[in-house]
Predict the structure of Dual specificity protein phosphatase 19.
Amino acid sequence: MHALSQEIRAFSRKGLRKQCTRVTSLTGRTTVETWDGARRVVVEAGPPGRGGSCGFVPDLSLDLRVAVLKPWLLLGSQDAAHDLDTLKKHKVTHILNVAYGVENAFLGDFIYKSISILDLPETNILSYFPECFEFIEQAKAKDGVVLVHCNAGVSRAAAIVIGFLMNSEELSFTSAFSLVKNARPSICPNAGFMEQLRTYQQGKESTKCDNIQDRNGGEWIVLS
């Protein structure tokens, strides 16, 4: 388990730029999250046309689009995760919530796992992979369908799904990213996540080479 408060404090010492996240509660109240040092600041978002504290007009339209990456693996936003008809339409049984401050809507109907991840370039997204991957694999093993979501289904959840496909399907970063991008064009993992995913590929390639070398008694075999 991760000590999120420790991670936040560590980030605050690095002089991060301001980040904003729109969060819609189950009651329909829309707020905007930002950070003041290590303290989370939440302000209520104004109606369309009045602007907002982060210098933009909050998008209050629902995003119920769900990307089907595998018959048992879906990617979407908090809006899809909070819409029962959408969940039933896609036969969802498990929900992996990797947003920060987004509630789980239907605790009696689905199997949930919540992991609070900050959408910051400095967040170590790779450290969350084992926990997330295990939950996804458990859903698959039970013939379930898992929806992975964060707030907008653009950065955190997308990075988790890309990493999972790289791991389970042995895809390169480019192939996994393209697969997810084609299924959900709006994805855009932050720059830090993108760099970590490339590093993740390098680590997997290094491990694969080490395993090949071990199987051949420590001698390299060059295929021509």
